[in-house]
Amino acid sequence: xxxxxxxxxxxxxxxxxxxxxxxxxxxxxxxxxxxxxxxxxxxxxxxxxxxxxxxxxxxxxxxxxxxxxxxxxxxxxxxxxxxxxxxxxxxxxxxxxxxxxxxxxxxxxxxxxxxxxxxxxxxxxxxxxxxxxxxxxxxxxxxxxxxxxxxxxxxxxxxxxxxxxxxxxxxxxxxxxxxxxxxxxxxxxxxxxxxxxxxxxxxxxxxxxxxxxxxxxxxxxxxxxxxxxxxxxxxxxxxxxxxxxxxxxxxxxxxxxxxxxxx
Length: 263
Ligand code: HPA
Known about the structure:
The chain has helices at residues 81-90, 151-163, 185-193, 203-212, 235-259; strands at residues 19-23, 33-39, 52-57, 60-66, 95-104, 114-115, 119-122, 168-170, 173-176, 198-200, 216-226. By secondary structure, the protein is of the alpha/beta class. The protein has one domain (19-134, 141-259): Rossmann fold (3-Layer(aba) Sandwich), CATH 3.40.50. Strands 1, 2, 3, 4, 5, 6, 7, 8, 9, 10 and 11 form an eleven-stranded mixed beta sheet that branches. The chain is globular and about 45 Å long. 48% of the residues are buried. Hypoxanthine (HPA) is lined by residues 101-103, 177, 182-183, 199-201, 224-225, 227.
């Protein structure tokens, strides 16, 4: 359980907005979200990456945050993950769906497909990765990450892919690297030996911070390229060719998730 208590700071509390979506590479905006208001939030950790965008998707309330900021300017290691998660929690959402473009390591995860990671390995370093930093805002907690992706939310996302006819590639383990550079082939080979199926740069500390705040958290991983040394075409060409197909599946899944009845 979280013992952290963010205070709303200029945020619009809206009990009906249960679900927040953090969009990453390929989803700096959410086509289909009818914007109702934007809120420039402030937190004890500074400003989040972008204004919080409140709106509706097919009539269902949702809140959107662009992880890399407007115009995709903030590198993965420079993102203020603490401000992002704090602002969402203070806004009153109960669950966060993270959208992450990833490189594929497992052969089943062809670019253009989506997967729901079930576990992760954190290879990042030097990021402000916890609210337990001795500040007045937070006590010390050793948060449990046995389920870095909340099973109930994952299960509902799984149902949403089925209900929307999206062909889910699988589940799997996410490696989170420091970036912003891509990996070497030897690094990808090591990640495969470690048991990783995909690699991205933003999954941590996001998942751990959500857990510290008691937020449900799950990720839709979008394969946009093969990991270095696996594919036969250039990584950036693979990304250009596949990213929109993946994001179309993400949007269909989110629509179904929001439309589904829940507790
Ligand atoms: N590696 C790390 N992060 C990524 C990649 C990758 O190949 N593709 C998209 N995000």
